[in-house]
Amino acid sequence: MTNGSTSAEDADPIAVSIPPLDESARETAQNRQAELLKPPGSLGRLESMAVDIAAMQATPTPSVDPAVILTLAADHGVTAEGVSAYPKSVTATMVDAVAGGDAAINALAGATDITTHIVDMGVDGDVPASVIEQHIADGTANMAVEPAMTTTQAREAIAAGRALVEEHAAEAGVIGLGDLGIGNTTASAAITAALTETPVEEVTGHGTGIDETTRQQKIETIERALAVADPTTDDPLDVLRCVGGFEIAGLVGVTLAAASRRIPVVVDGVVTGAAAIVAAEINEGVNKYLLGSHMSTEPAHAIQLAALDVSPCLDYEMGLGEGTGAAVAIGTYRAACRAHSEMATFAEAGLDSA
Ligand SMILES: Cc1cc2ncn([C@H]3O[C@H](COP(=O)(O)O)[C@@H](O)[C@H]3O)c2cc1C
Ligand SMILES: O=C(O)c1cccnc1
């Protein structure tokens, strides 16, 4: 069951119109950068970050505020194959912790003035009433045995993600993507292998800390899943249905809806990266609205970012998810936008620029 979707989304949740970047706003912002009270180029990539956001938001004075992170949670049937260092029940426990303000995402988003929302897309267990409910089912099926979800469920989850943006982040300056779901680095690696045509061995990491023997089991599980369901690799919705997750599908919907509203989307780690490559395959216009955050320790992440042509703005050897990398990066994007909008020009300071 899902809720909050409009009849238009029910008709075709993947059909969105994504506007082109505003090149005139980019040019105005670029010119302003050249006039600010600093040697041209001396704020390095902070300058291009602000200019890129100006083109996305169609304004010469870009701002990340109000910044919102949507952390979508769901369970994965593939945990039955022993692919994670933690039991499936930890997903519900972590949703509880996020709702109570006790998780890493709460601390990091609090430190960077970001509003967070936690969403149940398909948790197999009880969650507190304060969690936003977009529950599709009690976790996906085991992808190593059968497709993770039905096409109807994949579409419902995408529609739910779109509804989340409309209902909770329509006025956001930026939206950061976050995930929770034991087993979801397996789904993410499988999606990445299929859509980027990369050998499973190269995209499969240690997730929450599995040893090398278990990683080999994870590789074998993903290879079996891709052989069992045999998704059409040039059909992103089919790949999502066969080896995805409800939170990943929801994040696809969030990304499509944000891009259609000119809201920049800050990709977090490997799970949100998997959602981003699905969204970009559904509609290539998405690419222009993606902002990198960090470089995850999971090997699929670098492959995803290269496929998306997105650069991370930091590398702190993080590999957690929840939106934690996005939270830290949004602090940097905010700094970039504030320098751009708040600094005086040489003329305002009564100085010649050269
Ligand atoms: C306590 C805890 C907090 C987390 N926060 C995010 N994840 C991350 O790790 C999980 C995916 O890794 P795997 O595929 O190896 O299961 C997801 O829940 C993801 O959000 C966590 C994992 C744990 C254990
Ligand atoms: O990069 C991530 O998003 C990640 C890495 C390990 C576990 N969960 C998420």
From TrEMBL:
InterPro entries: Nict_dMeBzImd_PRibTrfase, Nict_dMeBzImd_PRibTrfase_bact, Nict_dMeBzImd_PRibTrfase_N, Nict_dMeBzImd_PRibTrfase_sf. It is an enzyme of class 2 (transferase). Its EC number is 2.4.2.21. Pfam families: DBI_PRT (PF02277). Coiled coil: none annotated. It catalyses: 5,6-dimethylbenzimidazole + nicotinate beta-D-ribonucleotide = alpha-ribazole 5'-phosphate + nicotinate + H(+). This is Nicotinate-nucleotide--dimethylbenzimidazole phosphoribosyltransferase. It comes from Halonotius pteroides. The gene is cobT.
